[in-house]
Design brief:
Strand order of the largest sheet: 1-2-3
Largest sheet: 3 strands, mixed
Helix content: 25-40%
Number of domains: 1
Structural class: alpha+beta
Radius of gyration: 13 Å
Strand content: 15-25%
Number of strands: 3
CATH architecture: 2-Layer Sandwich
CATH superfamily: Fe-S cluster assembly (FSCA)
Shape: globular
CATH class: Alpha Beta
CATH topology: GMP Synthetase, Chain A, domain 3
């Protein structure tokens, strides 16, 4: 069951990654309905061509992820996002 849940979470994250403007989010842990993710900020170099300077904030990312998890993962209670702001 845990592996299936991890797979479902990875599918959701894969769908979100293209909208992160060069940032990334990775699954760290799933325990008792609490999903812990690691947020990796996009490069801070403003001349980097692959970084979208209009990327969503970490707070918007959390809201988006929570909304998607609530619809797809029945056991979901909370998301914790570790990492840079």
């Amino acid at each position: 069951m845990e592996y299936q849940l991890n797979d479902e979470i990875e599918v959701i994250l894969a769908g979100i990654r293209p909208s992160l403007g060069g940032a990334d989010v990775r699954l760290k842990d799933v325990r008792q309905g609490i999903i812990t993710l690691e947020y990796l900020k996009a490069l801070s170099n403003p001349s980097a061509c692959h970084v979208d300077r209009t990327r969503p904030t970490k707070d918007i990312l959390i809201e988006t992820i929570q909304d998607k998890f609530k619809r797809v993962v029945p056991e979901f209670k909370e998301v914790i996002v570790l990492g840079e702001d």
